[in-house]
Amino acid sequence: MTRISTPFTARTTAAEVLAGVDLTGRRIIVTGGASGIGLETVRALRGAGADVTVATRNPAAGERRLDLSDLGSVRAFAASWTGPLHAIVANAGIMALPTRQVTAGGWELQLATNFLGHFALVTALHANLRQAGDARVVMVSSGAQLGAPFDFDDPHFEKRPYDPWTAYSQSKTADVLLAVGAARRWTDDGIIANALEPGYIHTNLQRHVDAATMRSMGAMDEAGRLLTPDYFKTPEQGAATSALLAGSPLVAGVTGRFFSDNQEAEVVQGGPGVMSGVASWAVDPEAADRLWAYALDAISS
C-alpha cells in the first residue's frame, strides 16, 4: 500500500494547507477548539468557509460544553446535534497527569478523556456522519503512541504502578486504534477516519509536565522561562495536519492511516528510542477490533 504524500511540510500552517479549498456548507466539530492547536484548526476551517462548532469543557460565547471525561456530558452533546455532520476533529486531551486519577466509571483519566470520551462521541454521532455522505473522523494522537501499546490486561493501572507517560502513550495509541476501527466499519457509510501527530508545540497541554522534563527537551531554562527549540512548531503549524485530514481534497477517500508533518507516516516497531513513525501496535486491526468491543461495553454499562 503506497504511503500518501502531500506538497506540504512540517512548517506549513493550517491556513496554507486549506488555501483555495472551499468548505462552505460543511459542518465540523472540533473538541478542545478554544485554545492551542485546536483554536488554529478552527480558524483555518472557518477561513475555508466551514461551519465549525467548538466543543470545550469551559465554553465561552458561541461555544458548546463538552466534558469528555463525563459520559453523561458526551451523550447530552451528541443528542443535541441535528442534521448531517461532515467532520469531527478529536483534538481535546490531557497529558502526563502526575498522579493516577480515575473517573466515576473507574477509567484512568487520561484514557477516559483522550480516548473513551471521543469514542463515545464519534459512535453516538455515527448516524449524523453517515447522513453527510462524505464525512471525516480526525483523531489527534501523538508521537507518544510509539511509547506503549494498549494494555488490555491492566488499562487503568489497577495492578501495575502508575506512570504518567505510559498512561499518556497508551491513550494516544488508543486514539489511533479508534481511527483504524472506524475505517474498518464505516467506509461503506461514506466515512473516512485517520489519526495524526501534531508535533511539539507550546500549548496548555504541557501544564502537568514537570520542569525537569521541560528542561531535558530544551523547552525551558533554569529560571523556568519557556524556550522554543528549533524542532518545535508554532500552533499554526501544529494544526496543519489536522486541517489536512479534516478538509483537504488531497486525502479524499484515504482511511485508516496515520499522518505526521502532513505526510502519511511509516509503520515501525515501537519502543524506547523510536522517535518517528507510527507503531505497528497502533495500527493493528485485531487490537483495533478488540479495543472497539471493549469501549462499546464500557459506554453501554
Automatic annotation (TrEMBL):
InterPro entries: NAD(P)-bd_dom_sf (IPR036291), Sc_DH/Rdtase_CS (IPR020904), SDR_fam (IPR002347). The keyword Oxidoreductase applies. It comes from the Bacteria. The keyword Transit peptide does not apply. Keywords: NADP, Oxidoreductase. Belongs to the short-chain dehydrogenases/reductases (SDR) family. PANTHER family: RETINOL DEHYDROGENASE (PTHR24320), WW DOMAIN-CONTAINING OXIDOREDUCTASE (PTHR24320:SF282). This is SDR family NAD(P)-dependent oxidoreductase. It comes from Nonomuraea salmonea. The lineage of its organism: Bacteria, Bacillati, Actinomycetota, Actinomycetes, Streptosporangiales.
